[in-house]
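Section handout 9: paired folding examples.
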Amino acid sequence: MKIQSQSNIFELDKVGAFCKHAPVNIPASQEGSLSGLSYGLKDIYDVAGIPTAFGSPAWLKTHSLPKATAAFVETLSHAGANLLGKTHTDELTYSILGINVHYGTPINSASPQRVPGGSSSGSAAAVAAGLVDFAIGSDTGGSIRAPASFCGLYGIRTSHGLISLEHARPLAKSFDTLGWFAKDPSTLLKVGEVLLNENTSNIRKKPKYYLLRDCFQLVPEPIASSLQEKICVLFSKEVIEEISIAPETLAQWAETFRIVQASEIWEEHGQWAGQHLQDFGPGIKERFEIAKSLDPELALTARAEKNRIEQYLRGLLNSLGDEATEAILILPSTGCIAPLLTSSASELEQIRKQLFQLLCIAGLGGLPQVSLPISHYENAPLGLSLIANYQQDLFLLNTVKQLSIN
């Protein structure tokens, strides 16, 4: 694979999306379905000989250069795509807002006075600014879906384990997934066909839509109304049933997610983090300290509950479909627009907690989810999401593309 160490992307980048500490340019190795398309790569994925900072100067200083490249990078190169550079991420990817005190906060071109969302902040910012055609990110607790909603993009979180994360920095392995952004559903699907090694010719079933009542009840009425108006237009030819998703409450589900995520993060990075807490930015340090103090019995109980919810969700989706249909769940992506850059730390933390009641669903189920940029509120983007059953990623991507055509 041919690697060029310099790129003019930094001259074009006026939104702070790309990592100057990791200049890399990998041109397409041959013609393919992605010929002519360029992309950015979240700085958690390894490229041999190029630094992986993981959003943290402390990590960068204490880890050697990668000796291998994530396999999907070569897959994209063989399909004709050109890698223009690595994109910024929240520190150690342990945030959802896109704010990094060390490397800066990428600008949200769709609403510059607001945060871009994270942790795939640079990837979203690069696509929103038109610097690349698509960008690779990752999604543990919403790191594709939140920035997609906040920046007015299409974004997919893939089924857990479907695409290899070898040579990627982990956060919480039970939830970590690869994902990507694009401005249009056709590009989103094209990338999916390459990375999933599938094509739409084998799709026979039709989508059957279910609106998640309890998710919309969590959202402020003006925002829910804005989304529902768009739903009536987007799904004008479809029959949509309303159901409730959580037998308990989504607040309980979010707490289960938080505990499992935190316990896995400390298990994965605790030994190193314990030596570098003084180097972490606000919010990140406190989250690691909370993770460190978790009761092991509480974490064990939460992991069992996570497994139960996963089985419940996949079983529910199976029961809602049939031989001719696949169930698709409809819900707000974030239920809010991106918070202002001037928001206080306490305001941001409250928004973060609210977000996870919606974002935890696909995470707990290991399910694919696409955020669609269908609405605006107060002149800022507002996303709507579709969730499909496990490993129905290509079906979901094709559904999104067909919806947009109709």
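Moving on to protein 2 of 2.
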Amino acid sequence: MTAAATPDPLSDLPGRIMAGEMAEQPAVLRRILAEGAPAIRDVARRIAARAPRFVLLTARGTSDNAALYAKYLLEIRLGLPCGLTSMSTTTAYGARPDLTDVLVITVSQSGGSPDLVASTRAAREAGAITLAVTNNPGSPLADVSEYHIDIMAGPEKALPATKTYTASLLALYLFVEGLRGGDGAPAQVLPELAGQLLARQDEVRTLAARYRFAERMVITSRGYGYPTAKEAALKLMETSYIPALSYSGADLLHGPLAMVDNVSPVIAVVTDGKGGEALQPVLDRLRGRGADLVVIGPESQVEQASAGFVLPTRGVAEEVQPVLEIIPLQLLAYEVTIARGQDPDAPRALAKVTETH
């Protein structure tokens, strides 16, 4: 007679799946560097040989924020003009632009959304070099694309994407480095540092107490940190339902600054490098308005804020810091949601694969 399985006492805890997937991130990053990097470099080498004249990036949701990060990499590291596509021009309006020698990169965790598949197919028919970056090499998107990069994150069951986001960032970084003939060595520090950040969850839990009753939030950054600000806002909205508005620091000064007061909290993602330097005038203005300013960034910046979380940026290249920046913000979304009595594993009205057309 077979003994009955012992029930898992943690199986019904809110946020159990999201917490487990966040904890996997160091292992996922290590796997990409050890096992995925050669294949990524090979794809990059073959695409570089075709000398694309510019790049179009296609994505939705969290993957759209990863694509925005790739846009910064491609324009800064390669000097290659990039744009973010509007899929409805193809799927709804039937436009068929000439995409000869254009690299179209489609980023999607599942690779299953019909509009992503349709727009990628149309791009390939219009002469584009098509690359899918997904967590599913057997997906319809991978099938219609000429090239594919597997981000190797493993199954992701929680509705809020965490490990697939950081995996996408690292895969895109290694791809861009491959295009320019680099070896991606600056990324080698990421798995260990990611593990150190996850071990500081108690710090984030203390920070989360500031936002338990927040009615809205503003998140800002510049440069490589701007995709982090957008992704953090998305995570907070889809888990805790707090309206979180993300702005480039430059855009924040062009009007939205007027809504900032000493009640609505502002989170600033301060990348250690040129992006952080460009954000400095914005931080000065926010402090001048008496904003409840929380900084995610270097210790020198956190010391000047109302509160914050110090990132281990010393010796870390600016272009790979976004892989680390988002981790405490993922933890923050998780902790705020738990504090508000909600379950981050099951946001209302959302599905894991969103089938837009």
